[in-house]
Amino acid sequence: MNKSIALILAGGVGNRMNLTIPKQFFVVDGQSVLQHTMKAFQQHMLISAIYVVSSPEWHQTVQKQAHEAGITKFAGVIQSGENSFQSARNGILAIAEEEDGNTVVLIHDAVRPLVSQDIISSNISVCLSRGNAITALQSQESYMQVENKGDNKDTETYDYILREDLLRAQTPHTFHLKELKQMVAEADQKNITYSQSIFTLACELGHVPLYPAKGEMINFKLTLPSDIMLFQAILNQLSE
């Protein structure tokens, strides 16, 4: 069976959190957000290695926190880039020197600490059977199509998008390492230095179709201060 590994992106700054440290290192319920995320992959029986991408000044902290949290699958920390896309690129190139091309790579945001075992299992299963997997949820809201963008008072909309036609992407985004290497090489050839995510890059480069894997509402991204409060409340509920 193909080896499966996690590549956790932890290089963000998180300005919208109004914290003095990056949000992935903020302590919630006795452990950092990153430690909570690493533990989720540590606990999954099919994950054999965990790599973390982080800015150089936090490398020692990542290593220390992995040790303190008992992350025996921790395989190393990789230097982040100027944005999340560059960080993912650096991570892919680094693990390509260590891992086989058939390895299944789950690329995940460090600030989605409530990723479940079911989500991880679904990503691995869908990737092995279909070739890739993008964690996604069926949309439950209606959406307006924006025509003229601006401040709220200046934004105009004349149309809508059916919610049945939309999936809301989360992470992990899961591909075989050899395809990730190919996408990075193609992006370099086309001078693509930014994409919102690996799945959007796959669309831009024509590496389609993409296949949805199980997503969950609880697998949300910590973006605003209220998200930290919600995360803490969920942990409190889970511990009861």
How would you portray this structure in words?
With 240 residues, the chain is α/β, with parallel strands linked by helices. The chain has helices at residues 33-42, 59-68, 84-96, 117-130, 177-189, 198-205, 225-239, and strands spanning 4-9, 27-28, 31-32, 47-54, 74-79, 104-109, 132-138, 143-148, 156-161, 167-176, 212-214. The chain has 7 helices and 11 strands. The protein has a 7-stranded mixed β-sheet, sandwiched between helices. It has a two-stranded antiparallel ribbon with strand order 2-3. The mean pLDDT is 94.
Short description:
The protein contains 7 helices and 11 strands.
Q: Taking all residues together, what is the mean pLDDT?
A: 94
| Overall helicity | 25-40%
Task: List how many beta strands DSSP finds.
Answer: 11
Principal-axis shape equals globular
The whole-angstrom Rg is 18 Å
Question: What structural class do you assign from the helix and strand content?
Answer: alpha/beta
Terminal Cα span: 37 Å
- The share of residues in extended strands comes to 25-35%
Low-confidence stretches: none
List the helices and strands and how they pair.
Elements: E1 4-9, E2 27-28, E3 31-32, H1 33-42, E4 47-54, H2 59-68, E5 74-79, H3 84-96, E6 104-109, H4 117-130, E7 132-138, E8 143-148, E9 156-161, E10 167-176, H5 177-189, H6 198-205, E11 212-214, H7 225-239
Parallel strand pairs: 1-4, 1-6, 4-5, 7-11
Antiparallel strand pairs: 2-3, 6-10, 7-10, 8-9
Observed structural traits:
240 residues; alpha/beta; seven-stranded mixed sheet; two-stranded antiparallel sheet; 7 helices
